[in-house]
């Protein structure tokens, strides 16, 4: 996650604009996570910042503006194993509240404070300490999925398709001339069915089936 951390650092110093005008860079972060209806820099934007940076790194965030939505994002990491760029989540007001704060882990000091690089920290992107008493979770992006070509479902489907095609190709020439057109028509139908199976395998792969 260090590449995420480096991307996040590039935004250090980004601030809300005072008065009626709004910083377009912050407004654009809302759009990048799917909330282009937000047209100001006063709406809490810590989750928008995290989602936008993750997107810049080629990762998908939660797409939500609720900081605590990141409690279930990625994979859980123990605080002692946290690395710069991991996503860290805190509660706000109370542990039971839906309100929270999210940013990128930087370090933990000897007093137990967790240093966070985040947006909407003092109305800016900054590094600030947060008490470990408010700590909820450290999350890390899941390991990249297998490519579609290497997924087990596609391996099985491809093997089946090749086997069926080879069998049909060997059988057709052995048939009487009168039957070969019908056999070829059947082969086309089988090929179309296999294409449909491949499409369904692709759909399941995109849904997470390996």
Would you summarize the structure shown here?
The protein has helices at 2-9, 24-32, 46-56, 152-171, 180-206, and strands at 75-77, 87-91, 100-108, 114-118, 126-130, 135-140. The protein is of the alpha+beta class and 210 residues long.
Question: What is the domain tally?
Answer: 2
The CATH architecture term of the largest domain is Alpha-Beta Complex
Order of strands side by side in the largest beta sheet? 1-6-2-3-4-5
- Beta-strand residue fraction: 15-25%
Beginning-to-end CA distance, first to last residue: 24 Å
User: So what's the CATH class of the largest domain?
Assistant: Alpha Beta
Note the quaternary state here.
single chain
* Class from secondary-structure proportions: alpha+beta
Architecture overview:
- Helix content is 36%, strand content 16%.
- The chain has 5 helices and 6 strands.
- The chain has a 6-stranded antiparallel sheet with strand order 1-6-2-3-4-5.
- Strand 4 (114-118) and strand 5 form a beta hairpin.
- The protein is elongated, with a radius of gyration of 26 Å.
- 24% of the residues are buried.
């Amino acid at each position: 996650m260090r590449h995420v951390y480096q991307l996040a650092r590039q935004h250090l110093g980004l601030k809300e604009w005072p008065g009626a005008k709004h910083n377009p860079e912050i407004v654009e972060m809302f759009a990048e996570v799917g909330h282009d209806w937000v047209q100001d820099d006063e709406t809490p934007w810590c989750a928008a910042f995290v989602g936008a940076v993750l997107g810049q790194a080629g990762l998908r965030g939660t797409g939500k503006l609720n900081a605590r939505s990141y409690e279930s994002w990625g994979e859980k990491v123990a605080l002692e194993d946290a690395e710069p760029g991991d996503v860290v989540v805190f509660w706000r007001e109370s542990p039971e509240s839906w309100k929270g704060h999210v940013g990128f882990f930087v370090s933990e000091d000897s007093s137990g404070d967790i240093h966070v690089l985040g947006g909407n920290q003092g109305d800016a992107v900054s590094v600030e300490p947060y008490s470990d008493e408010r700590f909820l979770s450290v999350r890390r992006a899941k390991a990249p999925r297998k490519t579609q070509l290497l997924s087990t479902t596609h391996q099985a489907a491809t093997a089946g398709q090749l086997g069926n095609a080879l069998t049909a190709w060997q059988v057709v020439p052995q048939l009487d001339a009168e039957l070969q057109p019908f056999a070829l028509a059947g082969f086309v139908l089988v090929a179309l069915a296999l294409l449909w199976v491949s499409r369904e395998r692709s759909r399941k792969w995109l849904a997470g089936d390996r």
